[in-house]
Amino acid sequence: MSSPTRLFPLLVVLLLAPGGEALAQGRFGVRTAPPSSAPHAVVPGPGSGGTGHGWVPRGPPVVRPVPPPYVYGWGFGYRGWLYDPWWPEPVPVGPPTVVAPYGTYVAPGYPPGVYPPPSTYPPSSYPPPPPQGTPVDEDGLPLEPERSVKRTIFTITGYGQHVESKGSAYGLGLGLEGEHWGFLAQWNGFYLDSLSGAGTDNINFVHLNATYALLSGPLGRLRLHAGASGAFAPNLNRVGPSIGVSAALGLIGPLGIEGQVSYTPTPFVEFDAFAGASLGWDHLALRGGYHWTYVDDRGLVDGIPHTERYQGPWIGIGIAL
């Protein structure tokens, strides 16, 4: 057998056998870079001073929103529905994207001022471990605290009103509210110019109602009222059943709107309604709007029905406890 013939089986074996690394690596016409056993260099992070002991990031930081001072709910000061500057979504801030040529290694780092490591912690202990019992995520970072609406129990309100062409009015309110059930007591006192031309006539209305919130949340509240109302005038003192509805809604930041309607059908008629806005901050709220009241004594005094309407702007304050 000639030499070329004897070399043919060896050539077939070399072509078909699972080759070593010499056959598995490389590409025709392309220089293969020699393997390197040296570890990748780590670029020191911000604030390391270039000493080689720089800070190594351990997960993306999270910008945590500052809790607003005004969100209380139930009484007033609901979270803004249209816009709330104190309710941003957590924004993760991660290392910047680095575009480098193939084969170049660049360690991740954070831009200066974004998430600098405290100089008091060595790299081995940063970030500092959370307190014992603090819930953490899969990366060992503390969970984002869920901001809950501060629930108030007592709400005290007071207002003053200009009664157009007749005099003035004042009012006080006390609200006791839970998640759904509550109680509301209100007093409205009208000090009107006497029809005789001398002195004033004092007419008072008192409302005592149980309330039930059909809708209750951090944005607002919708209540139903049921209870009793009393009318106390110079020649009339009567008590009757009453029903009503009230609502409050946060709009923009600490600014919200509110309104209430109540109705007493018998033995006298009283239809009372007000609407306004509130500007809440911490435990206090500045409130104002327009108040409209219609009353009819149904002839209980002298057999002649007397109807009257009191209306005008009002302004007041609220305290949530």
Description of the structure:
This protein is mainly beta and 321 residues long. The protein folds into two domains: 43-71 and 104-143, no CATH class; 154-320, OPCA outer membrane adhesin/invasin (Lipocalin), CATH 2.40.128. The protein contains two helices and twelve strands; from the N terminus they run H-H-E-E-E-E-E-E-E-E-E-E-E-E. The strands form two sheets. The protein has a ten-stranded antiparallel barrel. Strands 1-2 form a two-stranded antiparallel ribbon.
**Number of continuous helical runs:** 2
Largest sheet features: 10 strands, antiparallel, barrel
Distance between the termini: 109 Å
Domain module count:
2
Total strand count, please?
A: 12
Query: pLDDT below 50 for ≥5 consecutive residues: which ranges?
Result: 11-16, 19-32, 45-60, 90-98
Query: What is the CATH superfamily classification of the largest domain?
Result: OPCA outer membrane adhesin/invasin
What is the gyration radius calculated from CA atoms?
A: 38 Å
Q: What is the string of helix and strand elements? A: HHEEEEEEEEEEEE
